[in-house]
Amino acid sequence: MKIENVGLKFSKALIPLKCVTKIIIHHPAHPTWGMKEIHDYHKKSNGWNGIGYSYFIPKNGGVQLGRGRNVGAHCKGMGMNNQSLGVCFQGAFDKQIPTEEQYRDGAKLIAQLLRQEGLQINDVAPHRDFDATACPGKNFDMNKLKQYILEEMNPNVKGVVQAVSEQVKVSTATQNAIDNLAGYGIIQKDYKVTKDHEITLISMLNGLVNAIKNGKLKVK
């Protein structure tokens, strides 16, 4: 997909990443700041080389280039600055809600990055998993983002992997199907289901497992 280079100037040369193990999701926690405002803030107030994120997703969609595949300044925990890509979605999602355009274009970008780096859906994580922060905010729906990423990576799972709001205790049959698919990286191990969807999900999930085992559906 097209990645816009907005012409940011860094204080010194960027250092290429030796490896990428995670894609980390962020928000700038500011309701209006775009890429250039964040870049200036990170340089002048934080004393950094420039914007810390690898990529930026504006409210109206699209993708803008930050540091790209270079050492970042977006996640200190577990040494992630040296082994991850940081994707920042414009907004303050403790109060605001990401736009549909952001979810869709963010998913397209991340699906592309996962393919390039040989990673799986479980390698996409929020900033709060690594540092003492609420980032990317309580209103950012990671399940929705991951659903869209999976649809971009494999259209055959479209409509099967769903983000739902109510988590209930599921049957052994459903849990076995979920565990099998999680093993292939198609869904998360903590996938949530509702009571009225459980019977349908057993059939759909087991159908996908059988398709994978029989070689009819290839999963990277």
Catalogue the unreliable spans: 160-167
The CATH architecture category of the largest domain equals 3-Layer(aba) Sandwich
Q: What does the largest sheet look like?
A: 5 strands, mixed
The CATH homologous superfamily of the largest domain corresponds to Peptidoglycan recognition protein-like
Please provide a written account of the structure.
The radius of gyration is 18 Å and the shape is elongated. The protein is built from 5 helices and 5 strands; from the N terminus they run βαβββαβααα. With about 220 residues, the chain is an alpha/beta fold. The chain folds into 2 domains: about 1-5 and about 15-155, Lysozyme-like; about 155-220, no CATH class. The chain has a 5-stranded mixed sheet, covered by helices on one side. The longest helix has 18 residues, at about 100-115.
Task: Describe the structure concisely for a colleague.
This protein has helices at residues 35-44, 100-117, 142-153, 172-183, 198-213, and strands spanning 22-26, 55-57, 64-65, 84-89, 124-126. It is of the alpha/beta class.
Task: Summarize this structure as a short list of keywords or feature phrases.
5-stranded mixed sheet, alpha/beta, 220 residues, Lysozyme-like
